[in-house]
């Protein structure tokens, strides 16, 4: 087993991986950018090394600096988390070259599944159902327009290298497509350094259903059943659950087998996710493989009763798979809500700033994977995810109520978050009824937020007056940290961590 | 003790007084009896007619964030200018200005000086946190002046475009 | 289903029950004593009513006041939690008389199982294995001494009405027994109002294994497998786990069947626990039925995947049991550590005072059922339990590591707690090896605490100096609440709650 | 800056100084280099030769509670009398006094004035939080005086019995 793992990430996922390392008796190394010096992931590690300035390209995407740090600290493996370098096959390849274990798939299979067009080809050959679309990626608008005509509107434009909805656009006619191509290519370039895009048929009112898989380095693989992630804004998931209300045992079995076939033909190893679209007639289409640990992995952990990060590490260390498909089963229901620093009243625009006060939900069936704390600064430089709230219960009905209750008592003050929006989502009759389609938010939440009731406003005003009536000393410390900078904020010294 | 707060520009004045049992807040004609205990700097347990509520409050630069019944209401202390965007403020530019709420990079300005524009027409595309955000016109009118170019970095509140509203 | 439930308890269990009520759409009413006005359970309820002064006899044991409050607030059911009135059959009977549903067994079956001597008689008849002991309770020292001679030393003396180890003493000879009888009867009198004690054979090096049962009001019952609770100090459990390493499938099945037989012959309903001693030769003896929700119920919830408080409420509301024995199974491993305000270095003497700072553990597989917060006062009047930390993992090995890691990062400052002691317990090779017998602590922890390492002391001193070097303003607020009393602490007004 | 703390009666003196990289603490001959960031009023992230540690600290009446590596160490500021039992102090009575750490009720006093007693002999039984606690003799010696009777309520630190230690 590894002695020391470097976590090439930040926020809640870095903290979560470090906890797993501790549980496995492995030392952890945090890397951080200059503005993340007091970030939670830095506090959670056994060692912490500053690897560059705030812009991701200079720190969390800085391959040389990260590899050098791994060597300097004697880390024998690197966990990439999600985002940043997690699906960068050049980084995986570099690790392989440097003799550092990359906790994830091989660079070869990552490269294959990372290229949507190439992976379509491979999977199509073995008869895996696909959405009609372009045969190859393109940077030529006219080519796209011609293809769109053949496929038929509406069409979905995606960044070829993309993920997480970045660079994704729906176009219902030629004009919309022209605009979409232009900004889609721009976004693709800035997010992934590759402007190529491609087009496919846009499926109306689908569900997003994905299967978690685990494959060892010895040819053995299992799937851990599905997650439904249909609740999305800006093409990005914000609520995920398992099981999906849309699957019966037979469909579940067939999709699971398909997922394992995808793993097989792409020679995929370690933890991965096979994404499908499920249409209204229960017909499913393979979308892509996410060659990483998913943000929403906890719902699978709770329903199937395993630890996916432990599994990633053990598989990367060469262990043979200890799970047998027939021993695996789903029990109960889990829902995850992603807590983002963003403003649902303003097109989910990211919100940065200082968290003046936060109180984490706790109690039966509640799990909170958190990357921030009262007093931490949310920067504009990184993805605005703050934490993930996960609820588990014997039934979906209770799980919805448990989640709603936890969200209702989860104050984060000082920045905008989607907490209230999420609460009203899981409380929505259509959500409770399981009518979860990818258009859920347009369809059901467009009139959000509800108007503020006068009683509620009056109580808020009363509370504000009460708060203001208190001695100033107390208010001055209502902000987690005093304004007086500590004489002991000694910065450069952190770098001795690596030494 | 009397206090005044602004909610989206509207001012509310409120008095706290002793009541026969506990205390009451007076808002114009409305009287709200309550009893309270402070739990910590930022947490209060307040009793509003028979219901005990946990209330969480924090303040920065005259902006109060009040969490009650699972909703956060932002109240600004009256008489204080507050443009603290970093603290999650949602102050919108005046009707004749176009600005952004987040620091970012101007990807593309879609209009030129003198152009006629309509309400909600996309004028500028700004990228923040890897997301493109369309900034739309707050009004029908005409472009008076443009103060940035594609590729420029822009700070919250900086006027990117000045408009002449049609009336 | 009930509209409103009064929770006749305080601390973590009251909070936990209130959360369950919210999840089931039921309003909750907290009752509290004058010194508990700012207690967490008061904040967690929809309504809160002060029912008397600090001494339990005037508040949490004050049946008249509680019944009156239930009527005043329109509560149609009462949940007693554990301790206080939970196993007082007169209280259950009073509820029945007043037409308020008591969420627990009927007063009749509670009275039966609550009287150890009577319950021995009933169970013995149907061939349930018992520990040799006195045939009836006694208040006559000589009678006890004669009985002890017949049973043979060592003997265990218990309060007849007792529970939770109060009034329990081991005597290895006549002299020890004399002393034990005297103080045992005193403790029994003060704790339960009944000085009667009784004697039984003391089994050396046993394991404490108990089975959770659920029985509806229609004659149907299931068991939810075992909890092992062998780690005890002062005859009180501090670490509990499920499954028990000592049980194999056959033994588990036989003990489960025995537990259900006990339920049947005693006409027991709702949630209960059947306690056994398991000796070194895997022979088990029935001890008693705990006619309440157990402190350690969460380990069962995590391993079996159900919610016991929801189950209690639904059963009390008259629902037929929705679980079938053959559908129930154990998955993974769960450990609970009880966080007490006590001093393990000083014979676990309770510690009262203000919690200056507390940070709750969170993250994968961690559940914290908590009754306190930073700034709350721990009073001398009540049981010193603060919270319960529960860890769940796929295997016992990982579960131990997860629990140890969580305990290591769980600061409670200002009062003594058993957190460090618990951490060293679950880290102990003998615990990890599963050698968990009721004498575990005498045998393995007598040399606790380990000596403070000089490095550790130096770092603590450095930290203290650093802290002291900071501006006083900050230190003054290191204590959760300012010393200046709020002008708005308006006390009497709380009573309007009931109105 | 120099500070002095007491741990179980032993005094430790410590200086904080600038070091070439970050800072250092000086305890007699020992030098401990460190770098730190404050996370909140009670939480610090401190780097001790390459290891980053979360340290939690709170203070009350001159008693500092320091949580590091999963252990709490209580340090008392030198020069301050601290008998704050309510804050969990573990101050033991002098050798010639018998007192309790917790408020409670005296159940039974087992000795009389003039009795000879031996180290760890049970002298008094006090009930606190429903538990009986035996209070034992801190020394061999003789009972000089008894200041309470069965059933009395007793506060922490109040001498229940005064002893004449044997020597």
Structure, described:
The complex is a heterotetramer, with 2 copies of chain A (499 residues) and 2 copies of chain B (167 residues). In chain A, 34% of the residues lie in helices and 23% in strands. By secondary structure, chain A is of the alpha+beta class. An 8-stranded antiparallel β-sheet of chain A has the order 13-12-9-10-11-14-21-19. In chain A, a hairpin with a 5-residue loop joins strand 15 and strand 16. Chain A is globular and about 70 Å long. Chain B has 167 residues and is mostly beta strands. Chain B has strands at 2-7, 10-18, 23-27, 30-40, 43-48, 51-60, 63-68, 71-77, 97-98, 104-109, 116-117, 122-128, 131-136, 141-146, 153-154, 161-165. Chain B starts with a strand and ends with a strand. Classes of the chains: A alpha+beta (499), B mainly beta (167). At the C-D interface, helix 8, strand 16, strand 17, helix 13 and helix 16 of C face strand 1, strand 2, strand 4, strand 5 and strand 6 of D.
